[in-house]
UniProtKB/TrEMBL annotation:
Residues 16-27 have a biased composition (Basic residues). InterPro entries: ARM_FBXO47 (IPR056622), F-box-like_dom_sf (IPR036047), F-box_dom (IPR001810), FBXO47 (IPR038946). This is FBX47 protein. Residues 38-88 form the F-box domain. The lineage of its organism: Eukaryota, Metazoa, Chordata, Craniata, Vertebrata. CDD domains: F-box_FBXO47 (cd22112). Residues 1-38 are annotated as: Disordered. It comes from Dryoscopus gambensis.
Length: 449
């Protein structure tokens, strides 16, 4: 008699075996073969597997890399192949379209996705090995290098590199990010290049200043980064240098540039009053360093940096100093003014306060802001005598500046290029508005009492 166990693995005589509806039989006592880490891709030759990848988007390949370690290894090999390099390392960086428009935004998004792909593929590697692999993959892209592009002002390469690194390093701890910075610093030989521009005469190495500016802004300070990340990278750039060099480097990275050739304009702050656009980058950087995200900077550090900044390459016009402080925000503005009050520099403080009132008048800020700031600063003085001396200096400064401008108006021909009359007009209005707000404040206090 045939046992049921034996009959289950054989077909009855004359009966056609139906392979599709039956499980494959295994030898008794043996486990079934373990499923492959490649899944259904196990049956495909490597060449076919890589051909399939060519039909997937970078985001899909990134998702695929998380399936298993084996697939991730295959993807790492694919990325290093010539077909993978052509597929993934797009180099259409010189499109006439600007970032934010369709073509520019498209290639930036591509490199965001590529950053996530390499982040996932190298997840199990030590930081040093991850950086070496990423450098090996990207080393052939000349526009990712500090001096690699012949037309850097019209190139999206450094911005693409920046968004790639931003995604790659997102979530890394501070020690790992230090290693990333040191790796990039050495790779680009930035220490020697920065030393050249901060130790020479401002503007003597204009092309190198431009290259450093574009590299730092595009790669290390990638637009769209979190404030904490930006504070970290900016601190790493500035902190190795003495304060005077920090100010020089800050001006190179964030100062005004020529609309014609993109070079840093060093004379902008000393030749005449400037506009908010020229100062916004510097003001934003100062706010970043003064904020809570920049743990390595004290208030005294930032004040010293602003002081050094205001004499580059020579002493700035006081109006430009006042405009920078207004743009930097209430906290840094008050701290800067209070430091002068504490150090007994009443005349300089009064002059700066008058120019703040003038900037409020010119740029259409509320004049009560300037009055309230003055009232707050007055509380810093330790004695009524010091406070009264400051207020006397303030009124004297208004009077002297008005007389100087009046003489310039009377001496000039008042043609279209002569701004003396316009400055005189603004200062008269500024003084009137400033004292009007003081009267409102005084009358309001007396009536409430």
């Amino acid at each position: 008699m045939t046992s049921s166990a034996g009959s289950s693995c054989t077909s009855a005589p004359g009966q056609k075996q139906r392979r599709s509806s039956r499980r494959r039989c295994h030898t008794p006592g043996r486990d079934p073969p373990a499923p492959s880490a490649l899944g259904d891709f196990q049956t495909l030759p490597l060449e076919i597997f890589q051909m399939v990848l060519n039909y997937l988007s970078v985001k899909d390949i990134s998702m695929l890399s998380m399936v298993s370690k084996t697939i991730s290894s295959r993807l790492i090999n694919y990325i290093s192949t010539s077909s993978g390099t052509r597929r993934l390392l797009l180099q259409d960086f010189h499109s006439p379209e600007l970032p934010g428009r369709e073509e520019g935004a498209s290639i930036l998004e591509h490199y965001r996705s590529l950053g996530l792909l390499l982040k996932r593929c190298t997840l199990l590697l030590p930081t040093r090995d991850r950086l070496k692999y990423v450098h090996k993959v990207l080393s052939g892209v000349s526009c990712f290098k500090l001096n690699g592009c012949a037309s850097p002002l019209h190139c999206l390469g450094l911005q693409c590199y920046g968004v790639f690194l931003q995604i790659l390093t997102a979530g890394w701890d501070e020690l790992e990010c230090h290693r990333v910075f040191n790796f990039l610093w050495e790779l680009s030989n930035l220490a020697r290049k920065v030393q050249t521009v901060v130790s020479g005469k401002p503007g003597s190495a204009r092309r190198l200043e431009l290259r450093i500016r574009l590299y730092c802004r595009g790669v290390l300070l990638s637009p769209g980064s979190h404030r904490g990340d930006s504070a970290f990278w900016l601190t790493r750039i500035l902190k190795p240098w003495p304060m005077v060099n920090q100010a020089r480097l800050l001006y190179i990275i964030f100062g005004p540039v020529s609309s014609l050739d993109g070079h840093v304009v060093w004379q902008k702050m000393i030749e005449g009053p400037t506009d908010e656009t020229s100062l916004k980058g510097l003001a934003d950087a100062i706010k970043l360093l003064y904020g809570t995200e920049a743990r390595e900077w004290t208030a005294d550090d930032v004040i010293s940096l602003v002081d050094e900044l205001s004499v580059l390459p020579q002493e700035w016009l006081m109006e430009n100093n006042a405009r920078l402080l207004l743009l930097s925000g209430n906290s840094i503005c008050f701290t800067f003014l209070a430091s002068k009050a504490v150090n007994g520099r009443a005349a300089e403080l009064a002059r700066l306060m008058v120019f703040m009132a003038l900037v409020c008048e010119k740029d259409l800020y509320c004049m009560d802001w300037a009055v309230k700031m003055m009232q707050k600063v007055c509380k810093v003085f330790s004695t009524p005598c010091e406070r009264n001396n400051f207020l006397q200096c303030l009124e004297n400064t208004f009077a002297h500046m008005l007389m100087d401008l009046l003489q310039a108006v009377l001496a000039g021909e008042r043609d279209e290029e002569d701004g003396s009359f316009l400055n005189f007009f603004h200062l008269v209005n500024a003084q009137a508005s400033f004292h009007k707000e003081i009267l409102y404040l005084a009358m309001g206090s007396s009536s409430s009492s």
